Automatic annotation (TrEMBL):
<dbReference type="Pfam" id="PF13443">
    <property type="entry name" value="HTH_26"/>
</dbReference>
<protein>
    <submittedName>
        <fullName>Cro/C1-type helix-turn-helix DNA-binding protein</fullName>
    </submittedName>
</protein>
<dbReference type="GO" id="GO:0003677">
    <property type="term" value="F:DNA binding"/>
</dbReference>
<feature type="region of interest" description="Disordered">
    <location>
        <begin position="1"/>
        <end position="31"/>
    </location>
</feature>
<feature type="domain" description="HTH cro/C1-type">
    <location>
        <begin position="15"/>
        <end position="68"/>
    </location>
</feature>
<feature type="compositionally biased region" description="Basic and acidic residues">
    <location>
        <begin position="15"/>
        <end position="31"/>
    </location>
</feature>
<dbReference type="InterPro" id="IPR001387">
    <property type="entry name" value="Cro/C1-type_HTH"/>
</dbReference>
<keyword id="KW-0238">DNA-binding</keyword>
<dbReference type="InterPro" id="IPR010982">
    <property type="entry name" value="Lambda_DNA-bd_dom_sf"/>
</dbReference>
Length: 110
């Protein structure tokens, strides 16, 4: 892997982490996005997405487009006015918020 590929592997890591968090396979992601598997392979080899692709990935994962664009190094965190993207602490969520999140996830798997 070249230095450029190594530097850009954070995009591939970002995608893989969000696939893992959602229990998604490569096939699931290609189905949700309409991308060919070859595009995901290119990401693993260090290729980064363009703006339109980042938007599709954001929608597939249910993430903010800005968060995805920062991960893809299309914009900086400062440009997105993000000071840190964090996952909410489940213990800080209300019961209603937890039930809503579980319901959303269960609908996705059925």
């Amino acid at each position: 892997m070249t230095k450029a590929e190594s530097a850009d592997s954070s995009w591939s890591d970002f995608v893989q982490r969000h696939m893992d968090d959602r229990g998604m396979t490569t096939g699931d992601l290609t189905e949700k996005t309409g991308f060919d598997r070859s595009r995901l392979t290119a990401w693993r080899k260090g290729e980064r997405p363009n703006l339109d692709t980042a938007r599709v990935v954001a929608k597939a994962f249910g993430l903010s487009p800005l968060e995805v664009m920062v991960a893809a190094k299309l914009i900086t965190a400062e440009e997105a006015e993000l000071r840190g993207v964090s996952t909410p602490d489940p213990s800080a969520l209300t019961d209603q918020q937890l039930v809503a999140e579980l319901s959303r996830r269960l609908k996705r798997t059925t």
